[in-house]
Amino acid sequence: MRPLKPTPRRGAGGGQQSREWTLDEMEFLGRISDKEAACHLKRTLLAVTRKRQLLGIPSLARLLRNYSNVVVARRTGRTEQSVKAKRGRLHVRTRQVDSHPWTKREEALLAELSDRDIANRTHRSVEAVRQHRQRLGIRRCERAVRWTHSEDCQLGTAPDEEIARRLGRSVLAAERRRHLKKIPARSGKRHLWTLEGDALLGRQPDHKIAERLGVATNTVQSRRQELGIAPASAPKLWRKEEDAALGKIPDRALSDMIGRTKAAVTARRHAKGIAPFQRIPRIGHERNR
Q: What is the pTM for the complete model shown?
């Protein structure tokens, strides 16, 4: 019986894989057409196309259809004259300068970075950035305005619109910064208080209740003041004489004596490893039994 031959591995192009892709070879993908890359790298056209798609690299033809010569030149590392000549050979019409639509993330940069920095990040010309910023009525920013720690602490405590108004920034900038810090958004709708929510007021700090209910701290503070409830005081430290009395009298009696709750006394006694108070039976009572 003749031995079976092992099945050869198949590469990204669907054919037999003769060698692994190198970083130098991947640099050609998207910078020239797939056909030119296949001839230069001595691979099949299908292998080059599938490898480029697997890496998420747009084709040169797609870049020429959707972007201007300036953008294509920056992405492919070529001159504008070279891109213009290539466009003519492929018979692709010249794209209007920077005509691809702006995203919300890109528009948020207009209030934080200079026009030149935005142009480099979004692959647009400085003139296109300036025109779009003026169209939105956003003032020019010569340098990046860094967020301070106090500004970051305000994110999520109120709707993005209110935070932007307080800090003098755009709503998109506040929203983008909050997403970057992974801070949940606060709804602008009015919170409807329930009996369970009112019962928490004054028992815990306002910021703890705000986190639990998903509202701003000032919302909890306003509700507590409206009901005339005093804020939760800081935990009172245990004195030596109070610790010495644990287990010597019932927890209920000790709580009334020192002005603490029975639950607090019991928890403190358990933390100290002290057994609960037990009454010693009288001798005469034992004889009667």
A: 0.30
